[in-house]
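Hey, can you fold this one?
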Amino acid sequence: SIPVVDGGIGTCSTDFTITDTAGAPVYAAKIKVHIAYGFMYARKFDLEVGTNSDGKARFIGLPERVKRGLFFEASEGNRSGNAFDDPATTCKNQFTVVLRQKP
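Sure. Predicted structure:
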């Protein structure tokens, strides 16, 4: 099954597939996102989910409006990658993130 984290503050969702540079799925990669939402975007919190053996993970319950979009950061060991989403434009999104060696 795909690991899911529910933010509980909206109807948007984002699905991830995390791979290495050879295209193989990455198990136990961590995906983090910082969310600022609500009146004057004063409410803030962080969510994190880990990938399954197929490199897949999902965030649900994300807000439709956020201050500067959502910046997702994926990492595993000394590799990292990122993705950006603006839920006001694409409420339901899918990303494939390639993890590369950190500089």
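The two ends are 33 Å apart (CA to CA). Let me know if you want another pass with a different chain boundary.
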